[in-house]
Amino acid sequence: MELQKPVVGRFAPSPSGRMHLGNAFSALLAWLSARSTGGQMVLRLEDLDPARCRRAYCAQVEEDFRWLGLDWDIGGSQGGESYYQSTRSALYAEYLNRLAEKNLLYPCFCSRNELHAASAPHRSDGVLLYAGTCRNLTEEQRAEKAKLRPPAIRVRVPEETISFVDGLQGAFSQNLAADCGDFILRRSDGVFAYQLAVVVDDGLMGVNQVVRGEDLLDSTPRQIWLQRQLGFPQPEYYHVPLLYGADGHRLSKRQRDLDLGAIRAAGARPEQVIGRLACWAGLIDRPEPIAASELVPTFSWKKVQKTPIVVE
Ligand code: GLU
After folding, report:
1. For 233-252, what is each residue's pLDDT tens digit?
2. Structure pTM?
3. Separation of alpha carbons 75 and 11, rounded Å
4. Domains in the chain and their CATH numbers?
């Protein structure tokens, strides 16, 4: 009989502003899922993009988690610099190199405008796929183009269908070539892409359960494929519904009224926020105040709502 490994879940916020209710919703479910089985939580700050992320926001994210009653065992500011993605470039470079050794990478010189203008095939949902302009350049062509601008690094994906069963959303599959296309692993300004960083970090940090917003379901086949290329085990996945405002728009950091700063400034108590989140999730019948810790004993994924949630 195979022994069940203890769950290692994670919070992986992008510190590009104050957390909004949608971020808190995913974080609560990630925490409950790990804690209800005696598992651990890692806090990793996904501050790869220097133009959008600030250390001050990292501290604020930690403070908001604590206020909500969500704790973690490893990482965050107590874990030291290595839990900030912005300090981990040498590791990402090492794993990028492994992919280069497998001959899976190529430099891409396309500008944003060229990418849009290229007659890339698109998927039925309108997502543009890379047309492959730079896939088969000769060494001379690459050297010529490199004189004009530094390239991004793309990975060449095969005609392979990746399937997995999401713990909440069920079976999901994508053909990498038809549905994703060759994707970027390092931007032309040297910043590593989320898709690579998340795979390397979850792998090295021993994360075996990923709970996050449904907007990332679409990225998961690419990440599973990268895990296979790099020899990392595949975590369990749970993609939780997104929250929408009454106007039909997804909650975002741009809507200040539903971020934790505004909610706290308006005098809300953490139990009131947790109560609303838990009710939207389907964990309690009415949005009554409750502490996150009180939800742990009765948590079950079977109760959790699968479809998008409209926040009134
Ligand atoms: N940092 C990402 C975000 O805040 C989450 C990435 C992930 O959970 O894989 O949207």
Report:
1. 999 999 999 999 888 888 77
2. 0.95
3. 10
4. 8-89+195-311 (3.40.50.620), 104-194 (3.90.800.10)
